[in-house]
Amino acid sequence: MSQQSDSTLTVSGSGMKRFNSIRQSTNIVYSILFILLAFLCVVPVVFVIIISFSSEASIGKVGYSFIPAEWSTDAYQYVWHLRNTHGIPTVVMAFLTSIGITVVGTLLGLTLISTMGYVLSRPNFKLKKFYTFLIFIPMIFHGGLLSTYVVNTQLLNLKNTYWALILPLCCSSFYVIIMRTFFQTTVPDEIIESGKIDGASQLRIFVQLVLPISLPALATIALFLTFAYWNDWYQASLYIESNQHDLFPLQYVLVNIEKNIQYLANNDMAMSANNNALPSETMRMAIVVISVVPIMFSYPFFQKYFISGLTIGAVKG
Amino acid sequence: MKKFLSLFLALLMVLSVCSFATAESKEPVHLVWFMYTASETPIDWPEVEALLNEYSAEKIGVTCEYKYMDETQIALATQTGEYFDIAFTCDWWNDYATNVAAGMFLQLDDQLDKVPALKDSVLPLAWEGAKVNGGIYAIPHMKDIGYEVFWILNTDYFLNQKGFEKDQYISFEGIEPYFEAYKKDNPDDYPFKMSWGGITSWQNCLVDWLNMDYLVGLEWEAQGTENEHVVKSALEIDAWKNRLRKIHEWYQKGYINPDAAVTESMPRAQAGVVQSGQGWFGAETVWANVIKQPIYISRYDGAYLSTSSIRGSMTAISSFSKYPEEALKLVELMNTDPWYRETARYGIEGKHYTRNDDGTVTRTELGSSNMGVQAYAQGHYTVGALEASPFPEVPTDIHQWEKTMAGYADATLSAAMGFTPDLAPVETECLAIKSIIEEYRRELYTGTSDPDVVIPEMLARMNEAGLEKVKAEIQAQLDAFLAK
Q1: Candidate CATH numbers 3.40.190.10, 3.30.70.260, 3.50.50.60, 3.10.129.10; the one for domain B147-305+416-479
Q2: Contacting residues for A149 by C-beta, under 8 A, at least 6 apart
Q3: CB atoms B39 and A259 under 8 Å
């Protein structure tokens, strides 16, 4: 057995290894297939980045192309030159706001979701049925925009605060159910019992025994939450009044720029000196790049938690 | 001693009454005004608002907070009962008819006598368009409130090169010599380029729309005759059909780009030497700024005034306002005081704009980027200075609004003024009609397909889908409305 326990990834070898491996030719076919698939996914992103760096005139001449007639950073310069009342570039302020909201929101969300999921997964929790019911209902029925708005503004007074951007998204029934199922299936009872025997409190068992082996699930939820917070602009459009420029997250600023471009393009009568050479096409691509690139770089950070969680064993023997 | 004491007490009483009287000097009343923005509040608005409030507090004892909202925000604000005194309203934002029906807006008929300057600033016939069930619930803004459609012609080519006379009123068919001249010089190019939408606003002066999506309305030509209240489909109106035949003729002669029906958009800057647009005499500065060439305009249709043209931009007072009189006074200030209007529209003099010798103003760079307001949503265009044309060959006419308003005296008024049909009972038929229109419109409006072939086909299909029922429903509603 020990000879075969080393990696079966090589094609050549003897006995069991050869039996489990695939032929050279099939390997090549599969590789080509996946390379093509990867290309199809990556090329459009590269294309968008290239377009965002071409000049508006080049778009007029040759349209969208991998090799623009003229390179320029006009679109980025336009976005950079938008300043708020203190002279700080709007995008920088919005970027920092978004990062703050994402980090706080993800941590808060993780805390709430994992604790709720853990509690629901314990078989000896007296109120388990009641709470599962309570959490399940919002998954199926939604109160509607108007009632949500009234609760958030008139009852909780969250208008024009950062909390209005964080709280509505931080806890989702669906993620609680995911965590509960994960804890039920992947965390062995033995661990928890061993903690109890050693006299640990419930909180200690959770934080020091259960959480470290649940990293894949936590990383998944954290990833979902990060994406949700980073991409969200809807909460801002509802709860932040349009004169609170300093509270705008990044996506909201970008959506506003886009709305402005649309408005100026569609209304001759919106006469303003802004009309001169608005880099509208390249601006759209620049906006995409600004929103996507940071999140693209955060994914590898999460990836290492997925892998490490999978290979850590917990129960020996 | 007693005498002295009683005198002293009497004096005290008098003094206390006096101090009461001086404490009466009022705090300025604070109002809330909901304003429209495409995206967000202009960045420098807070300091402009402070200046405006200083002025209005002194003049009429009122200060105001302007809240800029887009479509979603205003819908939520009005539906959840957020307090406001004044709001912008029109038929595409904070819908006027719906809000009146819900009782959100104050009826202004008796209140208007308290603000005579405001009442006089609005054209008498414009009040008709703002009426719902005979009551006035909003103040229409004096801007281009009628349909007037123009040819936009390249000055360099037509006046300078080809020596045409500058004609202010070229008819629709009368544009052909211009096409011919261009086509002769440039046989491979097209004088009249368009996208799939066809000629801009070509039909608004042929049909008095009751609903443009479904192509039903009254015939403008039938105004003043006994048939002026007959609801028709545009496909039954001769003027509409004749114009489409003309457009098809031009297409066949090569004046229109052959791929028009599949062209997604044709920005004015690329569209060529002849263009069409809906505007007013004075709009040439706006169009010149977009086209970036010297142009002159010539009217081929108009002016026609209807409910929808007047309701393009209005200001209403909330029926839940605690200070309706003060609110009206502020609206009056906005629409009659030049300084207030200019500051709300352009910003702070010197910082956001500079005044020119001919009475126009020019925005500075800071003004363009930090004071991007929708001027038509604030109030009248007829008060305050106008913006100088950024394009010197096409100067701003500072008397354009007086001329335009005077021009409306000869305008044709809609026979259905104040009427908006409720199409809920015939919704299915309407949607079917709309999909039929969508199928044919691109080729039809650009002249690609033959109207004599296509229109009978469309009409037959629409009749099958229930056009008669829709017309009957609207006719019944219209008759009931007119009977009142």
Answers
A1: 3.40.190.10
A2: A238, B76, B80
A3: yes
